[in-house]
Amino acid sequence: MSKPFPTYHCDMTIEEIGVEGNRYIASEWRALYDSMYVQLTDAFPEIEDAAYGLFLDQLMPVVFERMEEAGFEVSETLEEDDFVIGKNLIFRNSLEKWGAEDNRSRVFWNVVRNKQGQPIGTLLTDIPHSHLKFDIPSAPVFYTIRESVKEQIVQGIRQLKE
C-alpha cells in the first residue's frame, strides 16, 4: 500500500501548504505512533522529550522534502548549538508555554520562501505531548500565518494559543 505523501506545487499559498500538510499528518501519524509506542514508552524514562524527537524524525521529513522538491525553501542556516528534529524543526524556533504537564504544546516555526527566495508566510507545527510519560494526545497540526519576521511570528503563535 502506498503512503499518501503530501503533494505540493510551486504556486501554492502558505494556507494551501498547511492544508496539504495536515492532510498527510492526519492520515499517517496514528499508525506511526502505534508502531513506535512500545519502543518510545520504554525509552521515555531515560530520554524523556527526546522520544518525541525520534517520533518526529520519522513523521516530518517527507513533508519538508516534498516542499523542497516543489521549489520551496523551508530550512535556514543552522547555528553551532542548534538542535534539530524532524529534518527542519529547530528548537530555537519554537515556543512551549501552553497546556498541563500531560498535554503540553510546543510550536515550531519555519518561514517558507518561494523559488525567488521571497517569504510567502510561516508554517507553524504544533506538537501536543506529555512530560509525564510518552504520549501524543492528538495529531500534530500545521497552522499558517503570513508573517515572516520572528517578533511577528511569536506574536502570531501567542494569538493562536492564548
TrEMBL record:
InterPro entries assigned to the protein according to its UniProt record, in alphabetical order: DUF6022
Pfam families (UniProt xref): DUF6022
UniProt superkingdom: Bacteria
Name the UniProt record assigns to this protein: DUF6022 family protein
Species name: Paenibacillus oleatilyticus
Taxonomic lineage: Bacteria, Bacillati, Bacillota, Bacilli, Bacillales
